[in-house]
Design a protein that fits this description.
Blueprint (H helix, E strand, L loop, with lengths): L2 E6 L3 H16 L3 E3 L7 E6 L4 H17 L4 E6 H5 L1 H5 L6 E3 L20 E3 L21 E5 L1 E2 L10 H5 L3 E2 L2 H13 L4 E5 L7 E2 L2 E2 H9 L6 E4 L10 H7 L8 E3 L7 H7 L5 H14 L4 E8 L6 H13 L4 E6 L17 H24 L5 E6 L6 E6 L4 E5 L8 E10 L2 E6 L2
Parallel strand pairs: 1-2, 1-3, 3-4, 4-5, 5-6, 7-10, 10-13, 14-15, 15-16, 19-21
Antiparallel strand pairs: 8-9, 11-12, 17-18, 17-20, 18-19, 20-21
Helix pairs in contact: 11-12
Length: about 425
């Protein structure tokens, strides 16, 4: 029996797509083995959001080939779409597939010719789509559900519309079929994923209609929205989040990117700072216990020290629980990369580290507000006899328990903070 190994870089969307490909390979007779073990086929699903992501992709490709010099090596995804020439220069790569055709990877296994990688890099369709899924791989208790792909917003720093294509939605009936299959297999939590999920629109059904239709599936207990653009969020979601009988969880991850109107304008973001802050404060007031996370990019071309300090001030003074902090990275072909006022890389990294320290403090403060409280936690696979899981508002919790807790929801009294998670005692 042939053995296949995967390595996935980047976002939840990549993770979802890898799961589907794994599923199809198992149905074709492959055994899926952990990355790093000997394999006959290696598939690296890539990310290209930053230069660092590109470099990590190349490193993981080379690592697989060194470990498995006789294996068939396929590189797929976003970096394959934009950086196919760099990937083709790596000895041992057999096939490079961009985003349009990567889900058909099995069709290309065994197609290398004359020691030169086969490159499949078709123009990305603008049509709405369906996903072919088999549905027999054992997902863990939190499953990603792809509802959308691509983006039309064209922020000046972002390469994603060039490598993922323009916005398109998944056929409603097709995604509902997968959702019902996941629930029938005992999935405890479903996470809606895509590039710009708030733009979902299939057959007149928008994001709000989709959330309500998913909530109506008998047995779906938790529904979480992944990262979503601020201008695409209907406020009607708030009432769903605070309704104890609705599956939608009190959690939003909304990219801010910068805390000044000047930088937001330079980034070609579709909101100003005042509108963004008004929205998140309204969400904070409307939904008790909501966790609001964000993305912030530092070191964007032309960002002054004063701009950066104002971003820090905005982050500290508003109801954010944490931030994913990124240093700006030039992406060839984007307007921002052509600007002459680039910030030195060492300064970008200094700002990044400074804001990450502030984010760690905010995350600690958010968790501290839950000390002594009783919460419900959905538990995942144990690690060294300890059971990790998440609250509805995305606090990571770890407990000790002799009772098997996989995919079970239990009440837990939170008693202390340890690094980036909380510890507690299981009550019931």
């Amino acid at each position: 029996m042939l053995r296949a190994s995967f390595y996935t870089l980047g976002c939840r969307l990549n993770q979802y797509e890898t799961k589907v490909i794994q599923d199809h390979l198992e149905q074709a007779g492959y055994t899926i083995v952990p990355y790093g073990e000997e394999a006959d086929l290696g598939i690296i699903n890539t990310c290209t959001v930053t230069r660092e992501a590109d470099a990590k992709c190349r490193n993981m490709i080379r690592k697989f080939i060194r470990r498995n010099p006789d294996a068939f090596t396929v590189v797929i995804g976003c970096y394959s779409q934009s950086g196919y020439k760099e990937i083709a220069s790596i000895p041992g790569v057999d096939v490079i597939i961009g985003n349009q055709d990567k889900m058909n990877v099995l069709k290309y296994v065994g197609t290398r010719k004359n020691d030169v990688p086969v490159i499949i890099r078709e123009r990305i369709s603008r049509d709405d789509f369906t996903m072919s899924f088999v549905g027999e791989l054992p997902f863990e208790n939190r499953a990603n559900l792809k509802i959308q792909d691509g983006c039309d917003f064209m922020c000046s720093f972002c390469i994603i519309p060039y490598v993922r294509g323009r916005a398109r939605s998944r056929d409603f009936d097709n995604l509902m079929e997968e959702a019902r299959t996941l629930v029938s297999r005992g999935i405890g939590e479903m996470v809606l994923t895509g590039v710009n999920i708030g733009t979902y629109d299939s057959g007149g059904r928008d994001m709000l209609a989709l959330v309500d239709e998913l909530n109506a599936i008998n047995g779906l207990n938790r529904l979480r929205i992944s990262s979503i653009e601020p201008t695409t969020i209907p406020e009607a979601l708030f009432e769903r989040m605070r309704d104890p009988d609705h599956a939608l969880l009190p959690y939003l991850h909304i990219p801010l990117q910068a805390g000044t109107d000047k930088v937001l304008s330079d980034m070609k973001r579709r909101y100003d700072l005042g509108a963004f802050l008004e929205f998140i404060n309204k969400a904070h007031a409307a939904v008790p216990g909501i966790c609001i996370g964000t993305d912030i990019m530092v070191g964007f071309p032309g960002e002054t020290r004063e701009n950066f300090e104002h971003t820090c001030k905005i982050f500290l003074e508003n109801p954010f629980a944490y931030s994913h902090v990124f240093a700006y990275s030039e992406r060839e072909g984007t307007p921002a990369a052509r600007r002459a006022d680039q910030i030195p890389v060492n300064e970008r990294n200094r700002r990044c580290n400074e804001l990450r320290r502030l984010s760690a403090k905010k995350r600690f403060d958010f968790m501290e507000s839950y000390l002594g409280k009783t919460v419900e936690v959905l538990f995942e696979k144990p690690r060294e006899d300890r059971w990790p899981g998440y609250t509805d508002n995305f606090i990571r919790v770890v407990v000790s328990s002799e009772e098997p807790l996989l995919n079970k929801t239990r009440k837990v009294r939170l008693k202390n903070i340890a690094a980036d998670y909380m510890e507690g005692d299981v009550l019931s």
